[in-house]
Design a protein that fits this description.
By secondary structure, the protein is α+β, with helices and mostly antiparallel strands. Helices cover 30% and strands 24% of the residues. It has 5 helices and 15 strands. Strands 1, 2, 4 and 5 form a 4-stranded antiparallel sheet that branches. Strands 3-12-11 form a 3-stranded antiparallel sheet, with no helix packed on it. Strands 6-10-13 form a 3-stranded antiparallel sheet, with helices on one face. A hairpin with a 6-residue loop joins strand 7 and strand 8. The protein starts with a helix and ends in a 6-residue tail after the last strand.
């Protein structure tokens, strides 16, 4: 099976040693997100959040995968309000009512794990709260669709149907991905899809599901910094991500946190 999936799809199925390594990296990613959540408050800058992530990662014997990746200048992505993803930390101060996504990828003992969460800055509007809640539900629905014999189309459909059924739109251009040996591997994991289509899931596959859900339309723009992706209409966007393993019986999160 491993040889077949490599030849057909360039998907590297993970053995026990790989899963154990990714899970250790994943444990640190979750601890990093928990740590950063305790510091998110009005007045803190996105660069201060980056420094916290950077220092915490190094202190725990790991390396931030984002730093220098294809020229990315920081150790984490911090995306605020209408920023969908890949926000570059800087002098911007968080304000009461913002929503902010922090995306952490750590390399520990050579293994990569990747997760993100969207946080509230103080008290947020009911509209922002509902968007974040539905986005977390979208990830949960996607995870619930993962099992041997299911397809990537099943996963995308689970996310899309819940998001659009709740009145939101799903970003198409940015997707989940295989992870473990490297930051980004095959397969690509779309957050839209049709049941029964796409690659069939088999034990040993490790990939992220990371739906980006917009309050308004699905159109996006990329800023002049070459990285930050924003909603074209200025509406809010939220995201949650976990690294998942297809097991013999179902699914295991290697970056588990409550949804």
């Amino acid at each position: 099976m491993a040889e077949e999936y490599w030849k057909r799809y360039r998907i590297k199925l993970k053995d026990k040693a790989a899963v154990d390594g990714i899970a250790k990296a994943g444990e640190l990613v979750v601890r990093t997100l928990d740590m950063i959540g305790a510091h998110i408050a009005p007045g803190i800058t996105t660069d201060a959040l980056n420094t916290l992530v950077h220092d915490f990662t190094l202190e725990h014997g790991a390396v931030p995968a984002s730093l220098g990746y294809r020229g990315f200048p920081k150790s984490t992505c911090v995306s605020v309000n209408d920023e969908i993803c890949h926000g570059i930390p800087g002098p911007r101060e968080l304000r009461e009512g913002d929503i902010v996504n922090v995306d952490v990828t750590s390399i520990k003992d050579g293994w990569f794990a990747d997760a993100n969460r969207t946080f509230f800055v103080g008290k947020v509007s009911a509209e922002a709260s509902r968007l974040v809640e539905v986005t977390a539900q979208c990830l949960a629905r996607g995870i619930a669709a993962v099992r041997p014999g299911a397809t990537l189309g099943d996963v995308g459909h689970a996310v899309q149907s819940h998001a659009e059924g709740s009145g939101y739109s799903v970003v198409r251009e940015l997707v989940g991905h295989g992870v473990g040996h490297a930051f980004h591997e095959q397969p690509q994991v779309n957050h839209t899809g049709r049941p029964g289509l796409g690659v069939v899931l088999v034990p040993g596959m490790v990939f992220t599901i990371e739906p980006m859900i917009n309050q308004g339309g699905l159109a996006i723009n990329r800023l002049d910094d070459g990285w930050t992706v924003v909603t074209a209409d200025g509406s809010l966007s939220a995201q949650f991500e976990q690294t998942l393993l297809v097991t013999e019986k179902g699914v295991r999160s290697l970056t588990p946190y409550p949804l």
